[in-house]
Amino acid sequence: MNDIPHWLKHLTVWLLLGLAVFLGVQAFQARQAATNFVIDGGTVELRRGADGHYHWPGRVNGRAVDFLVDTGATGTAIPAALARELGLPKVGRVQSSTAGGVVQGQVVVGALELQGGVRAERLRMAALPALEGPLLGMDVLGRLALQQREGVLRIDLRGAR
Predict the structure, then answer these.
(1) Model confidence over 114-147: pLDDT tens digits?
(2) Strand, coil or helix: what is 121?
(3) CA–CA separation, 50 vs 31, rounded Å?
(4) Is the N or the C terminus of the chain less surrounded, counting Cβ atoms within 10 Å?
(5) Beta carbons within 8 Å of 124's beta carbon, 6+ residues apart
(6) Cβ neighbours around 33 below 10 Å, total
(7) Is the Cβ–Cβ distance between 56 and 140 less than 8 Å?
(8) Which CATH architecture has domain 36-159?
(9) Where are the beta strands (DSSP E) in 25-100?
(10) Do β-strands 43-47 and 90-98 pair in parallel, antiparallel, or remain unpaired?
(11) What integer pLDDT is reported at residue 32 of this predicted model?
(12) Where are the domains of the chain?
């Protein structure tokens, strides 16, 4: 141990401390995400995230995604890059009004699955170029019984249409 330079010992200690902090933050974030989504029988509970929004984990054509629940959106939308990566078939064009203004995109068709068992096959979705992440719109949410209270969105899956 005396042959190892003093600076290397210090560097090793700092790297180990950095690794411990990194792993601690990762564990904290995983625990936070797990408590924001709970399935209890036929009910899904979504707790408002740190960003002030509700997030619902799911899949588009088998790819895991985190949907932002957007009750103000008429339809479900995904980033255009994701639609390209998944090779979703284009069936038309769409003009969408967003918070950033009006954008042009494609209408694509894909399979949507949300944790808790909500599924939509051959769902038409807007693929928008500047969208950061998938938005779950009222085309899917409108089929579910929703109740929001005190930062918790409860979805009763037993009454799904």
Answers:
(1) 998 899 999 999 999 989 999 999 999 999 999 9
(2) strand
(3) 13
(4) N
(5) 75, 91, 107, 108, 109, 139
(6) 13
(7) no
(8) Beta Barrel (2.40)
(9) 37-40, 43-47, 55-60, 63-69, 77-79, 90-98
(10) unpaired
(11) 62
(12) 36-159
Cα(64)–Cα(81) distance, integer angstroms? 15
DSSP strand pairing (118-128 vs 77-79): parallel
Q: pLDDT band for position 104 (50/70/90)? A: very high
Pick from 54, 64, 81: nearest CA to 135: 54
Between CA 46 and CA 85 the distance in angstroms is 28
Tokens 């036929």, located at residue: 42
Amino acid sitting at position 46: L
Distance of CA 20 to the CA centre of its chain: 27
Residue at token pair 């969208």: 131
Side chain identity at residue 142, one-letter code: G
What is the mean pLDDT of the segment spanning 7-31?
88
